[in-house]
Structures are given as structure tokens and as C-alpha cells.
Design a protein that fits this description.
mainly alpha, two-stranded antiparallel sheet, flat, 2 strands, 262 residues, 3 domains, Beta-lactamase
Length: 262
């Protein structure tokens, strides 16, 4: 056997060995990676952060980077029926004037879907962008805060809630013994002066907003929070308060939300 032949055999053996070793290394790395992912996932669920995977499936796997106004179809919902739906009455000057150019530019630059002006109970202007129209259904996000306080007013008017100064602990007794929460009133909640320990952070997935949005129980996410200061002393914009009103509604056994739209 010539030297060249021996070298060729050696190279062939080395290539076979290298392929075997490479496959073993790849398999080892793959097993380690999968094991690591499984361990991390288990830890997330144990520590109460399992909702993050739900968030990932509704954002990054949908080509988004955060919550979006079209998320509604990804969540369960309750239909509010009405016996006699009515369209907004149009004002005689409906859409008779164009919006100033600078306002339109600001709306477009902020990815606005719709802009509606209602005056004296009549629709005076409406305009849509980015493929949205009058029949589009989108998330309301923080608009729900104003609607929720309106519902509180309706509940007071109909006597479903006796007084705006009712203590929150009258609806949830477990709050009587929570620090700072004993004197919390519905008025404190409506004015965003609850003293609730709630960080209004929209980026950090480990903070309350993400848990409330992507978690399985909004009630648990909200009521598990502590209070950091006495209610009624300081205004602080928070998303947690409007959810609490819904739970007052549920606790009282009355359908405030449904009644408003019937």
C-alpha cells in the first residue's frame, strides 16, 4: 500500500470520525438547549410568570412587539346585547370641515385608527386611517377607564351601588386587614387616588400590566396587589383601578355593564 493510499484512508477515517463527533456535539448542545428551555419554562410557571408565554404567543409570534388594538380577537369576550341599537345621530355639519393639516399629520404619525368628534350628542366629524372604518372592532384600552367611571355613575343612579363613598372592603372583606386598604373608597378608585402598588410600565413583562393583560385571572392579578400609601392623598395614573370596579359589579350581583347599553 502506497503512502498516498494510506493518507487517503487516514483522511477518510478522520472525516467519518469528525462527522460522528460533530453529530454528538450537536445532539449534546440540542439536548442541553431543550432541557434549559424546559427548566426555565417550569420555573416561570412555578414563580407565577406563566402568562409571559401567553404574551409571547399574542405578540412576537404574531409579528408584534407589544399589545395592539387588534388583540381583541385573541381573547375571550362577553357580548352585551341590546334590544334597540341606535346609530349616532349626525349633526347637520357632519364632516363639513376638514381637520387642520397639522392635526392630521399628528394623527397619522401616531398610527391613529380613527378620530371622532361628538358635540351635543351628535356626530360632527369622523375620519379613519390604516384600513379601519366605521365597522372596525378594536380594543378600547384606556378609553375603558372613562366608560367604567360612567358605569359607576349609572350604578349610583340606579341604586345598585349605594354611595360613592362606600368602602371597597364592603365588597371584598379581605381588604379590611390590608395595610392602607381599610379606608379605601370607590371615590378613591374613581379619582385614581387608591394608593395601590401598581407600576404603570408597558414594557417590563414581570410587572402588573403584563400580568393583568395576559394572565388567566384579572381578578387575581388585581386583588393580589398591596397598597403602598393611604388612599385619597395622591393622584397616580393606574390601569388597575378600572378592573376593580368591574369586580365590585360582580360582587354586588348586579350587571352594571349590561344595563348601561340596554
Amino acid at each position: 500500500m502506497s503512502i498516498i493510499t494510506k493518507i487517503n484512508h487516514f483522511v477518510s477515517y478522520f472525516q467519518i470520525y469528525f462527522k460522528f463527533v460533530s453529530r454528538s456535539i450537536v445532539m449534546t448542545i440540542l439536548i442541553f438547549f431543550v432541557s434549559f428551555i424546559v427548566i426555565v419554562a417550569v420555573l416561570f410557571y412555578i414563580l407565577g410568570y406563566g402568562y409571559i408565554f401567553n404574551g409571547i404567543s399574542k405578540t412576537y409570534l404574531k409579528g408584534k412587539t407589544s399589545a395592539n388594538i387588534d388583540d381583541g380577537k385573541l381573547f375571550s369576550s362577553n357580548l352585551i346585547h341590546t334590544e334597540s341599537p341606535r346609530l349616532w345621530e349626525e349633526d347637520p355639519d357632519y364632516n363639513s370641515k376638514e381637520l387642520p393639516k397639522n392635526i392630521v399629520e399628528d394623527l397619522i404619525n401616531s398610527n391613529t385608527a380613527s378620530f371622532i368628534v361628538i358635540k351635543n350628542g351628535k356626530l360632527i366629524h369622523e375620519q379613519y386611517w390604516n384600513g379601519y372604518d366605521q365597522l372596525s372592532k378594536t380594543n378600547s384600552f384606556s378609553m375603558a377607564k372613562a366608560v367604567t367611571v360612567m358605569l359607576l355613575g349609572k350604578a349610583l343612579e340606579e341604586g345598585k351601588i349605594k354611595n360613592i363613598d362606600d368602602q371597597f372592603s364592603d365588597y371584598f372583606e379581605e381588604f379590611k386587614n390590608k395595610e392602607f386598604a381599610g379606608n379605601l373608597t370607590l371615590k378613591n378608585l374613581a379619582q385614581m387616588e387608591s394608593g395601590l402598588d401598581w407600576s404603570e410600565d408597558y414594557k417590563n413583562p414581570f410587572l402588573p400590566n403584563a400580568r393583568a393583560y395576559y394572565g388567566k385571572s384579572l381578578l387575581k392579578s388585581t386583588l393580589s396587589r398591596n397598597f403602598k400609601e393611604n388612599p385619597g392623598e395622591k393622584f397616580e395614573y393606574q390601569s388597575g383601578f378600572y378592573a376593580i370596579f368591574k369586580f365590585c359589579d360582580t360582587k354586588s350581583g348586579q350587571s352594571i355593564f349590561g344595563r348601561l347599553f340596554i
